[in-house]
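Recap slide: Glycosyltransferase family 39 protein, sequence and predicted structure.
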Amino acid sequence: MTSVPAAPAAERAGAARRDGRWEVAAPVAVALAVGSWGLSGPSLWRDESVSVLVARMPFAELRRFLADLDAVHALYYLLLRPFAALPGPLEIIVRLPSVLAFAAAAYGVAALARRLAGTRAALYAGLLYALTPIAARYAQEARSYALVSAVAVLATWLLVKLLDRPSTAACLAYGASVALLGWLHLYALLLIPAHLLTAWLPALRRTLRARAGASGPGPSGAVRSLAAVAAAGAALVPLLVLAAGQKDAQVFWLKPPGWAELAAFPGEVAGAGAVVLFAAAVWGAGRAPAVAVWAALPVVLSFAISQVQPVYHPRYVLFAVPLLALLAGIGLAALPRRAVPVVVLALFAALVLPAQVALRQPASRPDDLRTLAATLAAEERPGDRVLFVPGRFRLFVAVYGGPYERLTDLTRVPGAPGPRTAAELDAALKGVDRVWLISPRIGTKYADDERYRTLQRTLTPGQTRTYGSIHLSLWTRNN
């Protein structure tokens, strides 16, 4: 296999004078601009509602919640906690950590590219990542995925450093980054087999030379990388135990993906720019096969594992996208004329612009919780009640708190650990004339919910309105 070509002498001399700072800084600036553009446009949706409401829970309630559900996101909820407590525009405040993580990942992509293939590759790789629609999409979401991507880039950087100059400090730093990656999202550990493969296969190790003339990492770095991963695994045992017990509640909605889902992945990543991005990555793969392994193997593993236990979703392999951009940037830098990569980069920006605009539209998220809350605020009356079916649905919708704070919640008795029983709800409905029902589509899944059946016996439903997947209906008493 061919190693990553050394940067030309003139470029190395120029890099020595300016240290490649501009080539690394420009992607960060673009990522911040792209991440901030239209940040408050789309409403928070149900997953973001969970993030914010859980981050605002008292610690005792938070511990109980994580013991039953969502332990895999515990670290993210703790990191979001200080942001969720800040005043200001809600969407901007709670999405800000993801914007910053997106910019940090763009920096890491550019820094890795500069180390492996020179300053031109740094600029191209960082800009490609900053412009990629799927990365921008999750840079504007109050969930952990942008942060997971940033830590995946950090772990990859530390792996390269460990293999280049093995030391105890480098080993500890890499192990800590792997543990952090797992605590943020267990599925991101699918990157680690790709890391170990490049560390242990000599042909791939040679492609990670950081400087022209370097001898390449030797076995010491590979052994230390394995030791670091083993130590990280020990640190992840408590999370693995908790997650195993919550698996059925956490990812029950995932289905085994078929070839159609895998074929759709490039479009999910880059929309109309997919051909440009993936063609550049293929061109770069021959020059940096180790990077190709990092970018491709996690997606392949996720798809393969999902045939037995579904774990695949495009956002669950988002951490591979910065490495895909790294590979594509190396490919662009290897093109024969300097003007050609600039043209390709401009073409990519033009092709992804419609997708970038679309993801900032108010209807671009699966749910429109902001309009739902505004509807309730406009139409509620004194004495109205609200019922959530299933009971956990309050977490899915109540991030825009106003109307939910005023409406009496019939779903549970205050202070009780679980939802009301049918008998308790029947008693609570006496003398109540109007109840707002908030639920998914009832269908057959929730038709037998005892609270829903009690409501059916007592009140009459009105028109159902939908806000993405969320259904709202007003139930009234016939006098």
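Confidence is low (pLDDT under 50) at residues 1-6, 12-17, 210-217.
The first helix runs from residue 9 to 18.
(End of recap.)
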